[in-house]
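$ ./design --mode recover --in tokens.txt
reading tokens...
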């Protein structure tokens, strides 16, 4: 219900891309919030800065693999809601927004929503059991692949995969585990999208420099946001552009901290630097 007002807001703000997070749905409403279709507990909170309402993550409901496997709310890629919502937004973009903002269907990847359904401690124990870990990532990989196919086959020009792999000082699991469990699926997802001339955009917060090259090789067309406040000086959008700028595209990089506390001049100067150095060639 909020997709169209948000798309209008993006258009009003002259933002070019609006990632419509079509795949996320409540499974069960609870006091103060809801459990979503990935088993995560979400609660409505009041942001102290301006008293606005935000959704906060409060753990997962899965205590073990048995809980996960018996959960009745897992997303079904063939649920007609997903395709219907995308096609409706596509018509809305063309007829009411005159395509001034490009609406991209958003889905979850393999990592972020997966560990959050368990909580990081339980998820870490599962990683120590390779068969269980493979089952988990294969489930999520198949889901993301099928969702991508459905959107791409119905003329989506891009699919936006949300999948935080890291935080400010590192990644949620070792590069080896990403290379083993995640990146092969990302490659399949990219291949499926490209078959229909559809681009694959990957959103990941945090420092993912150790696997960035692997993701480029897998076929990711664009990365968002290249977080500029990580502890790794090599995870820098300008350095990455020198290494990979001829193979992929960069989206974003203006930190929320700068937007919230920076001066108008600082924000304008940094924005112009991004355009000047990164825009040529995409």
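writing sequence...
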């Amino acid at each position: 219900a909020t997709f169209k007002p948000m798309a209008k807001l993006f258009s009003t703000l002259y933002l070019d891309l609006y990632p419509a997070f079509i795949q996320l749905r409540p499974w069960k409403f609870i006091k103060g919030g809801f459990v979503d279709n990935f088993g995560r507990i979400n609660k409505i909170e009041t942001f102290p800065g301006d008293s606005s309402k935000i959704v906060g993550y409060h753990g997962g409901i899965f205590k073990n693999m048995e809980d996960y496997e018996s959960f009745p709310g897992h997303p079904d890629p063939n649920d007609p809601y997903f395709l219907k919502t995308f096609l409706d937004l596509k018509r809305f973009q063309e007829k009411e927004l005159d395509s001034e903002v490009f609406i991209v269907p958003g889905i979850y990847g393999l990592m972020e929503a997966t560990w959050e359904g368990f909580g990081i401690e339980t998820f870490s124990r599962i990683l120590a059991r390779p068969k269980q870990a493979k089952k988990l990532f294969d489930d999520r990989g198949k889901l993301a692949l099928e969702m991508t196919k459905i959107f791409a086959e119905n003329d989506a020009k891009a699919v936006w995969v949300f999948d935080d792999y890291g935080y400010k000082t590192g990644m949620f699991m070792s590069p080896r585990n990403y290379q083993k469990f995640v990146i092969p699926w990302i490659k399949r997802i990219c291949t499926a999208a490209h078959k229909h001339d559809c681009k694959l955009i990957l959103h990941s917060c945090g420092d993912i420099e150790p696997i960035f090259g692997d993701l480029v090789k897998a076929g990711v067309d664009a990365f968002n946001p290249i977080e500029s406040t990580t502890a790794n000086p090599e995870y820098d959008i300008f350095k990455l552009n020198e290494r990979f700028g001829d193979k992929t595209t960069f989206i974003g990089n203006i930190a929320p901290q700068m937007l919230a506390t920076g001066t108008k001049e600082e924000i304008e100067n940094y924005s112009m630097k991004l355009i000047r150095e990164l825009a040529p060639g995409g």
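exit 0
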